[in-house]
Amino acid sequence: MQLGIISDTHNNLTTLEFALAFLRLRGVDTIVHCGDMTTPETASALGGFQVIHVLGNGDYLSGEIRQALLYQNPNNFSGEVFTGSVGGVKIAATHGHVPKKVQELVESGEYAFVFCGHTHRHKDEQVGWTRVINPGALGGLRSENHSFYVLDLETGEGLFLPA
């Protein structure tokens, strides 16, 4: 099962649509959005995907974003932190603006993958048993080129892609 990981869209619908088109072509049907979606319009663009969304420090309209996601699919998730299984693999996600939360999730040893955003810098590193992935950013101020990530949960192979 392939998983799309995106973050920090900051309502940049142009790069988001590019990433979503690529993910559709790859047959990805589940996306983890690591926060800073910023508007319900961005949430609406994610229609057709199963979405796990964690709130970022820029998601001021969190209630409206959550409603838009649940309207599209009642199985979507939007909250502070996600912990659960996808494709039989235990994952966790948080935005990353509270570094202690990322550290707690990683150090718990409970998750094969911990996804986060916030820094707008992509990262894929192994910390003990847990792999920590930040897909970079699809919008907002850039410290790097816009990017997103595709992860094969069965093989663990992943790929950063430019947007």
How much strand? 25-35%
CATH-assigned homologous superfamily: Metallo-dependent phosphatases
Mean pLDDT, nearest integer?
96
Overall structural domain count: 1
CATH architecture: 4-Layer Sandwich
CATH topology: Purple Acid Phosphatase, chain A, domain 2
Report the uncertain regions.
none
* CATH domain class: Alpha Beta
Helix content: 10-25%
Rg, nearest Å: 14 Å
Beta strand count: 11
Order of helical and strand elements: EHEHEHEEEHEEEEE
The end-to-end distance, rounded to whole angstroms, is 22 Å
Shape: globular
The biggest beta sheet reads: 6 strands, mixed
Number of helices, where a helix is a run of at least 4 consecutive DSSP H or I residues? 4
Describe the structure.
- The chain has 163 residues and is an alpha/beta fold.
- It has one domain: 4-Layer Sandwich (Purple Acid Phosphatase, chain A, domain 2).
- Helices cover 23% and strands 34% of the residues.
- The protein has 4 helices and 11 strands.
- It has a 6-stranded mixed beta sheet with strand order 4-3-2-1-10-11, covered by helices on one side. A 5-stranded mixed beta sheet has the order 5-6-7-9-8, covered by helices on one side.
- The longest helix is centred in the first third of the chain and has 13 residues.
How are the SSEs placed, and which strands pair?
Blueprint: E1 2-6, H1 13-25, E2 30-33, H2 40-44, E3 50-54, H3 62-72, E4 77-79, E5 81-86, E6 89-94, H4 99-107, E7 113-115, E8 122-127, E9 130-135, E10 147-152, E11 158-162
Parallel strand pairs: 1-2, 2-3, 3-4, 6-7, 7-9
Antiparallel strand pairs: 1-10, 5-6, 8-9, 10-11
